[in-house]
Amino acid sequence: MSVCERLGQLVAVVEVPGEGASLIDGDLAVAVVSRKGDPGRRRATAAHELGHLIVGDEYSTDIGVHVSRDDREAMIDAFAAELLLPAEAFRATSRPGGRMRREDLVILAARFRTSWSLTVRQAVEAGAVDGSAAKEMRRKNPTRAELMEAVGWAPQPDLETIRVPPGYAHAVVECYKKSLITASRAVELMRGQIVAADLPLRDDADLDL
């Protein structure tokens, strides 16, 4: 969310089918990411939509889950993968000989919060695993317990609890504190990231009831 916002794209995590879509209208760039799917997939979709902004596409949609990929989409996928999990990360943690085991990839997937398919893909790109090893690894998705074990059972942030950009969230709360919007409207604008009880107290709070 923060990276997309700094680069000029506001992203919202919403309840829509498929994966995501983005739009550029003048100086405004926005994108939506579907809440469906695992957190790693949502992060990949957000990075992919950012790729469309970088390339300069005025409009893109990945709502259709079975859309064929052309060279342009493949390039954007490569950008998204490198943004989320740089090939350098594999070289920095590889074992003697440059090859990595499945356990090593699980640690990277947990640390960088990437989907398993993206992690394996980047491992191949970095030369950390060969094609046959990658094919075998793709059949063995890590369990939630494996991923949590890899980061010491510490909860990791993702696009499950963060639904709107930091700057946008700050603006919503400021509007609420200045009594420009009601508590219910603030919660609505935050798309489920908070509930009314999370909002700060204000003198006219009774007006929201």
Structural description of this entry:
- This protein has 209 residues and is α+β, with helices and mostly antiparallel strands.
- The protein has three domains: 2-67, no CATH class; 87-150, no CATH class; 166-208, no CATH class.
- The protein has helices at 2-6, 39-55, 71-84, 87-93, 102-112, 116-125, 131-138, 144-150, 166-177, 183-189; strands at 9-14, 20-25, 28-34, 59-61.
- Strands 1-3-2-4 form a four-stranded mixed beta sheet.
- Helix 2 packs across helix 3 (71-84) and helix 5 (102-112) packs across helix 6.
Descriptors for this entry?
globular; alpha+beta; 209 residues
| Number of extended strands | 4
Strand content: 5-15%
**Helical coverage, percent range:** 40-55%
Task: Note the gap between the termini.
Answer: 32 Å
- Strand order, largest beta sheet: 1-3-2-4
Derived from helix and strand composition plus strand pairing, the structural class reads alpha+beta
- Globally, the shape reads globular
Largest sheet: 4 strands, mixed
Number of domains: 3
Runs in which pLDDT lies below 50 for 5 or more consecutive residues are: none
Number of helices: 10
Mean pLDDT: 85
Tell me the radius of gyration: 20 Å
- SSE order in H/E notation? HEEEHEHHHHHHHH
Task: List the SSEs and their pairings.
Elements: H1 2-6, E1 9-14, E2 20-25, E3 28-34, H2 39-55, E4 59-61, H3 71-84, H4 87-93, H5 102-112, H6 116-125, H7 131-138, H8 144-150, H9 166-177, H10 183-189
Parallel strand pairs: 1-3
Antiparallel strand pairs: 2-3, 2-4
Helix pairs in contact: 2-3, 5-6, 5-8, 6-7
